[in-house]
Amino acid sequence: MMITTIREAIASINAHDTTKISDWRLVERRLERQERYYVASKAEQARTVDETLYSLTVYVDTIASGAGGSGGTSSGAGTGSLPNAASGSASSEGTNNPSASPTLKKFRGEATITIQPTFSRAECEAKIRQAAFAASKSRNPWFELPGPSAPKTSVPVSGFEALSPAERIETVRHAFFSAANRFGGNARINSLELFITKETKRLLNSRGFDFASTIWRGYSEFVVEADSSSGTVELFDDIEFSEPDASRLSEAIETRLAQVRDRAHAAPMPTLHDLPVILRGKEAEEVFGWFFHNSRTEMIYSKASAFEAGKSVQESDKGEAPVESLDVFAEPVISGLPSSSAFDADGFPLKRTAVIEDGILKTLIGSIRHADWLGVPRKGAFGLFSVSPGTMSLDEMHAAPYLEPVMFSDFRLDPVTGDFGAEMRLAYYFDGAKVVPVTGGSISGSLSALRAAMRRSKEVGLAAHSLCPKAVMLQGVIITGAC
To answer: Which end of the chain is more exposed for a tag (fewer CB within 10 A), N or C?
Structure first.
């Protein structure tokens, strides 16, 4: 068994080498993947992929003289690799040894490698030895790996589990193509790729943590098209899922089919001023994600985020008060999303955590090492989040003139500054009397300036990594016309 081989290789290195591996973390991933490739409604290719992957991170501790630096190297002479730290003790904040000299500090370096399941014991040992050497040259503030811990939540069993391989593919395929059939050829699927993966994952470390889980990951990307007076127009989209939820899958592709049909006769985007912009779907999630990601320990520690615990994250740069308060929760599990997990990547148990309440940053979430370095409680690194519904319904958002972009060439939102901008491939412009599909032009702005006046829809739905309002309305966005 490869896990046993890796353990033996580490033990051999620690018994015979000068550079000792103080701790380690190992991830085994066994993947069973079904792949289908369609052109129009015809299956062009079918593949089945089975693979096993091993990712090993080794940690090497050193004692160094000098004050050192955050994430950098220390100054002064006198360094040495420490023996295996798994049997030692340390505080949960990763405090350096208090009995050591004030001029000496404990540091931790790390390196991550991929080990092939076909490696021999000698090949494993050689590669792990190289990783240990690389880790010994890295010197970051010390932190402790999590030990054994019971999960604080559970991931529900996916509906895919009860289906045969053929039923899994057919359920998802039918959801997509039955939606296309309703358009009668006015809009159609040009091509579609479908992947359904069962991932059996085992995470273990030198501190005695050992947890196995099963994750279902569905993914599809597709191109839809329609005929216009100047030729065929296309739109691209993708979706991630962990359940055979036919209604959600059908809705995703049906929405894009309706939009590509409108794109076929869209007018050039006019120049507009002082008009609210409504963002939907992935772009709305990116707006909410900006608040979530700037509440992470790693963002605070590196000073990339301007957020401060106990202070408002909604006030604009000019000090404007928010029109409606925001609540954001870190979520270990959201049904239907494949990033659900009971533990984070380090093996820290996750539970639902209030991050932002009434617009105030209450809790920092993120990697445990950065929590230790900041001296705040460990909460873990979450891949999912939820956002409280707003006070406006979609109908209310659509009652007055607006611009609603629904497809961009490449929407970009800076994770630090909140600056965003993109060219629009399709948007809907309501002038107060009628809704017109438009194309071309662009929008730009900055969440730092616009966040106070931001409004959220009452309606919520699943996005790629969240359960959040379906739409967000922004005031003051710069709109540039196509002509």
So the answer is: N
Tokens of 179: 């939606």
Predicted TM-score (pTM) of this structure: 0.90
Residue 165: phi, psi to the nearest 5?
A: -55, -45
Helices (H), 303-407: 368-374, 394-397
Q: What are phi and psi of 47, to 5 degrees?
A: -135, 150
Q: Where are the alpha helices (DSSP H) in 102-199?
A: 121-136, 165-181
Instruction: For residue range 322-375, list pLDDT tens digits in order.
Output: 999 999 999 999 999 999 999 999 999 999 999 999 999 999 999 999 999 999
Within 13 Å of residue 307, how many CA atoms lie on the same side as its CB?
Answer: 31
In the Cβ-directed half-sphere of 43, how many Cα atoms lie within 13 Å?
Answer: 10
User: Residues in the chain, how many?
Assistant: 483
Parallel, antiparallel or unpaired: strands 104-115 and 140-141: antiparallel
In this structure, what are the phi and psi dihedrals at residue 450, rounded to the nearest 5 degrees? Answer: -100, -10
Tell the residue number behind the tokens 């002064």, with chain if given.
Answer: 76
DSSP annotation of 7 reads H
**Residue environment code for 152-168, b if the CB has 16+ CB neighbours within 10 A, otherwise e:** eeebeebebeebeeeeb
CA nearest to 404, candidates 276, 286, 251: 276
Residue 301 near residue 413, CB atoms below 8 Å: no
